[in-house]
Write a structure and sequence with these properties.
The chain has 225 residues and is of the alpha+beta class. Among the domains are: 72-146, Immunoglobulin-like (Sandwich); 151-219, no CATH class. Helices cover 19% and strands 24% of the residues. It contains four helices and twelve strands. β7 (126-133) and β8 form a beta hairpin. The longest helix is centred in the C-terminal third of the chain and has 15 residues, at 168-182.
């Protein structure tokens, strides 16, 4: 069984109001004030508008700030020798780039706006922080280490070997020995080449050539000079 409810209808009679009816009509109107059919406002009628919750604009701004891309510096932790300068690329920075060194006695920094890089110059052995910023007010702290290199290695070497053919083991040992001999080390530094990191794929026949990459590791304490 369905129950139906019917809202009371109001009947309007045209014509001039009578003095005796004004009080009665006022009572009837007051009696219908709580009637949903008579006094409820319906959506879509004149006067309806957009409602903005307090603080919604402020929250929108906060959301926009939270989604701004961060500044990325490559390399993330630059290292430089005293008296030398290295560059680091600044990515995702908007507008003018700024850079400030926390301790200029350790390292100084300048900005190349055209190349979108920062130039870090080592002053003395130690560590400091360079703060990179942009026009949005976004910043990135970059750890900088200033130290003397433990040593230097040759970019490339030419080596003649004997054997018919030269075996894989012989080629590996010869390449490691040549790389270690060409390196220049500071006092206290050590050089090491993991044999398994030197890939030699085949023996080398007479009058043939091959290229062998030799990963070299040079280590020393931070105070070594």
């Amino acid at each position: 069984m369905l129950a139906r409810s019917r809202a009371p209808r109001s009947i309007h009679r045209p014509g001039p109001d009578r003095a005796g009816q004004s009080g009665d009509s006022g009572k009837r109107a007051a009696g219908r004030a709580g009637d949903p059919a008579a006094g409820a406002a319906r959506p879509g009628l004149a006067g309806a508008g957009r409602v903005t919750a307090p603080g919604s604009h402020r929250n929108a701004h906060r959301a926009a700030d939270a989604t701004q891309p961060p500044i990325v510096v490559e390399p993330a932790t630059p290292a430089v020798e005293p008296g030398r300068t290295v560059s680091a690329r600044v990515n995702s920075a908007a507008g003018t780039i700024t850079a400030t060194a926390a301790d200029p006695a350790i390292a100084t920094v300048t900005v190349d706006q055209t190349q979108r890089t920062i130039l870090i110059t080592g002053v003395a052995v130690g560590s400091t922080t360079v703060t990179v910023g942009d026009s949005r007010g976004v910043t990135r702290d970059v750890a900088v280490r200033v130290a003397y290199a433990a040593g230097t290695i040759a970019d490339a070497l030419q080596l003649r070997v004997t054997g018919d053919p030269a075996t894989v083991t012989f080629l590996r040992d010869a390449a490691i020995t040549a790389a270690e001999a060409a390196a220049t080390l500071r006092t206290g530094a050590r050089i090491y080449v993991p044999p398994e990191s030197v890939a030699v794929h085949a023996a080398l026949p007479t009058d043939d050539r091959t290229t062998i990459d030799v990963p070299v590791q040079i280590s020393a304490t931070p105070t070594s000079r």
